[in-house]
Design a protein that fits this description.
The chain is of the alpha/beta class. It contains 11 helices and 12 strands. Bound molecules: ligand PBG.
Amino acid sequence: MTQHIATRFRRLKRTPALRAMVQENVLTPSDLIWPMFVTDGENPRTPVPSMPGVERLSVDLIVKAAEQARDLGIPAICLFPYTDPALKTQDCQEAWNPNNLSNRATRAIKDAVPEVAIMTDVALDPYNINGHDGIVRDGVIVNDESVEALVKMALAQAEAGADILGPSDMMDGRIGAMRTALEAAGHKDTTILSYAAKYASAYYGPFRDAVGASGALTGDKKTYQMNPANADEALRLVARDLEEGADMVMVKPGQPYLDICRSVKDAFGAPTFAYQVSGEYAQIMAAGQLGWLDEEAVMMESLMAFKRAGCDGILTYFAPRVAALLNS
Ligand code: PBG
């Protein structure tokens, strides 16, 4: 007796045309934010050993990279400074120096490539002798004094021309304080992409090498970053940051926290971004170099997963490679 199967999912998988017709999500260069490391050192380019293919670049070369982003159709870049250890202090004043490395890079890029959006990082770790994102007094990360410092830092970045401020510090009250200060200073259109659900993660290791914060960090960041065991708290943090004036929110790290991306998008419908962090990048690159994975295929699949999980965009060190591939 012939058996009739009514629902054959394979019917729509038969040819590339049929598969393309029913594809639910797409990845385009405009989904990407490209994080880059800027340095003042003697070498214009220094490879980051734990992030193969990623280099710290001088301001001149960062401008070139921003031009490359524009040519590839990548709408935004994100700047992280590698700060001279001599400039790191207890009070972190370099963070709000109008002429610090990050602000100089912002101005240089704005001059040369105004069409690329510049995102900056608002957190004290590059400037802190303790490597923490907030100010440390007697071994404690003090919240409110840190917020005051972060507001000064945010204003200096907005003044330099940053389009998107990325507070990654996880202090309480920082979004509201920054938003109020920005409004008062006339920076009404500066956007805030809050690192709202940022976990205390071991996946940040290679990044801390890249910005020279690994050696500096005393202890861990568990008194301000999230416990990886928590999900409900992420929704409360996102609600809080949106209420305080964030325009967009982020989940970080990315792939291990795709469940959080999905629930944030479903609960709020706000522009939601994920950060595919340094450790995620390093894993894919390392397995690729060992010949254990098809690096390029895994790169593309890992990024599509963020779109499927509801993200509007992804911060990824793969950005130029992915964009070039998508454009080809
Ligand atoms: C610091 C900051 C970190 C990252 C972005 N901003 C590290 C940390 O919180 O220790 C991590 C990015 C990555 O791992 O790629 N405020």
